[in-house]
Amino acid sequence: MKRNFWWVLVIAPLLTPWARAVKVGESAPDFQAIDSNGLQQKLSQYRGKFVVLEWHNNGCPYTRKHYESGNMQQLQKEWTGKGVVWFTVISSAPGQQGYVTAERENDYLKQMKASPTAALLDPQGEVGRLYSAKTTPHMFVINPAGVLIYDGAIDDKATTDQADIASARNYVSQVLQEATAGKPVSTATTRPYGCSVKYAHK
To answer: Please, how many CA atoms are within 13 Å of residue 112, restricted to the half-sphere of its CB?
Structure first.
């Protein structure tokens, strides 16, 4: 009985995908992934810049809300234009909703007029599990020192209705506006909303 109890308390949590998730205020774990153009991208190569991680699934209605309205593309264009690195991360496993090949992702980016720095293909979910990405979209912001300064939702309207975007409080823009101006981040964590990330089964 004691052995089973020890297993539940000590071993089982270590086997969960979220057991060692990074927290706001901690160093963002480095990663490497191949982007949709076949290039290897490493977080550490962008030290000295703000980095946004945007978890993506093109079949998710919550993701579609922000792309079909042009909201996500507008954010990408605005902030990459100010020197921010923006990674769209696709952790959907093969056969799951949102999984894409590099060619299909590039077609999608062109169709949507999206302009992230790169779209990272993460079909084994390694980057997603490293950051405990739970939903699409799920947003993270990393500062130039490599510290995670935001983890959560894109905004405060957890719906699929495009009409809600205009009145929403966009957390990502707020964090970047504050942080790039050298101000403290007023809202560092929120509850992400959207479709669950379609990870490969371990």
So the answer is: 24
Tell me how long the chain is.
202
End-to-end CA gap in the chain:
27
pTM: 0.89
Whether 189 is covered by a domain: the verdict is yes
Per the structure block, which two tokens stand in for 26? 């901690």
DSSP string for 137-180: S-EEEE-TTSBEEEEE-SBS--SS-GGGTTT--BHHHHHHHHHH
| CA torsion through residues 64, 65, 69, 74, sign | negative
Residue range 17-21: average pLDDT? 53
Q: What is the CATH number of the domain that holds 117?
A: 3.40.30.10
Q: Which domain holds residue 58?
A: 21-196
pLDDT digits (tens, 9 = 90+) for 128-150: 999 999 999 999 999 999 999 99
Return the residue matching tokens 């901690």: 26
Which of 122, 137, 143, 142 is closest to 41 using CA atoms? 122
* Identity of the residue numbered 182: G
Per-residue model confidence as pLDDT tens digits over 86-110: 999 999 999 999 999 999 999 999 9
